[in-house]
Amino acid sequence: MRKFGWPMLGLSMAVAMPCDAAAQESDTEEQAYEPDITIRSRWEDNPAHGSDGDRLLRRASAGRFGYVYLREVPIPPMLVPDMGERDVMVWLDVDLNSAGNVTACTGDRLEYYYPQERRFEDAPALPAELAEEACGLSRNHSGFRPALDQQGSPVSSTASARVEYSWRRPLTGPPPAPNPPDSWVPSVPNRYMFDYRDYHRWVSVNRPDGSQFLEEDRTRPRRAEVDLVISADAQGAITECTISTPSGIADYDNASCPALEAAGVELVQSVRDFTRILRNFPVRVRWNRTKMQVVMPGKPVGPMIIGDLTLDPALTAGIDISEVARGRAELTISSNGELSFCEISESTGHDYLDLLTCRHFAQGLRYSQPINAFGDAAEGRISASVDWNRQQIYVRY
């Protein structure tokens, strides 16, 4: 963290500065930007399977948290004219050995980011010299953490990495205000409302006419259900429709989205400006021959861990964990409430503890059955943090 000193304000500040001092201050302002180079390679962007096709216990990543800051590394001269107004991002494809060292690296593409406008822009081509420069940084400074197989052994793997070149201006102005007292709790609106019943008073789906999109066929099964995910604009026109769970009957599956798009949806007048309400909105279409019924979603119930969330100290008996050993695991819970897979998304910093984390979730805990928004048993996910120093599991439901 940078620390900045602030001059004492007094009468002496009114004295005119010499020309040399003014010029020196001007040069300081021009040099206010400082180089900032980051290598990012997040676990979710990298392959989940090893070279043998088996699922990995932990995917490869840059450092423990998916990024590595490079200190005192200069911006390449070829990029200096571009810096200040936009950031330069070089995407790479790298091969890693079991020690996390880069054995091969190729440039993928070049991308620009404009911080003031908060937008990305694809560059026409990635110069070979810039790709080699970025590959050199990934070989010498990346600090990749290798992938682990299901037995907890490091294995070779591939990864997608991004080298970000940017210039950041140090903070100017007065120091930040002091923190509020501990008893003060800010009011934060809940932006992630999973109870879809709240939407029923704002959104209604017009009843589609299935006979316009499906011909009568007595040989076809009479009933079917198709789950869809839709998005709509402020006028109620469906802009995107995809099948999340097909019925297995091609005629019903192929007709569901066109019929729903033709019918559209209606939004209450007071919320028509809030088009984010219908982003990836689930609906179910029930077919009875050529008749359609649209079912609105209810409240899904995600899986929960049943039992004590305290870790048994005997699990780490004889293991030196004097350093910080906190990690995160992504748990996949099957429709019958059993753990079907565990993957480390944030390493504890110790390969053995990463393996022990997933073993504990597989052998020492039970889980509730996930229920989707339409009342059916479904697959669910749990993101759990594990603190081996405090022997505690933290889950945010």
From TrEMBL:
Position of the signal peptide: 1-21
Keyword vocabulary terms for this entry: Signal
Highest taxon of source: Bacteria
Protein name: Uncharacterized protein
Lineage of producing organism: Bacteria, Pseudomonadati, Pseudomonadota, Alphaproteobacteria, Sphingomonadales
